[in-house]
Amino acid sequence: MASTLKINNLDTASGTTITIPTGKQLIGTDTNSIKAPGMVVQIATDLDTTSLTMDANQNYFDTGLSIAFTPKYSNSIIVIQCMMGAEVYSSANIGIGFRLLKDASLVYDNDYSLYNSSNNAQRIEQVPILYTETSGSTSARTYKVQVSRRAGGGAARLNNYAQSSMVITEYAQ
After folding, report:
1. Has residue 34 been placed in a domain?
2. Torsion angles phi and psi, residue 119, rounded to 5
3. For the chain: N or C, fewer Cβ within 10 A?
4. Within a domain: residue 6?
């Protein structure tokens, strides 16, 4: 015979540990029904493999990495990690800059994420982006990455030799 126990708080009779016996499980039936500080609440990912050659005008272009994200809690920590497949090649100074936008607001900007001094060499790298913030609300928002050629002549490309990716992780507090 099954029974239902209805309580608002669970505490130990003695000591500091509540033990679930071997072979038994505690199962939450709703999304996020079990929450502890530091636990991953949700993860969202995006992948961009489209090659982009940037022109010399230094404008920012959308990379193809864009995630619509709705935090589950208003006090969560949001961590955004990106790896950008970037390349520069030139006999002059040249760089690539990345920025991260939340909706239309700039939240991360690095003018020279990848830079090559005037040595007529090619640099191909996975450029990391790391950004953290407190969610502040449970309102939907869209995070996207933009890229720009930052100076000089030569070639500046994205995803020509490697792909780019973005991972958003929400951590409970």
Report:
1. no
2. -125, 15
3. N
4. no
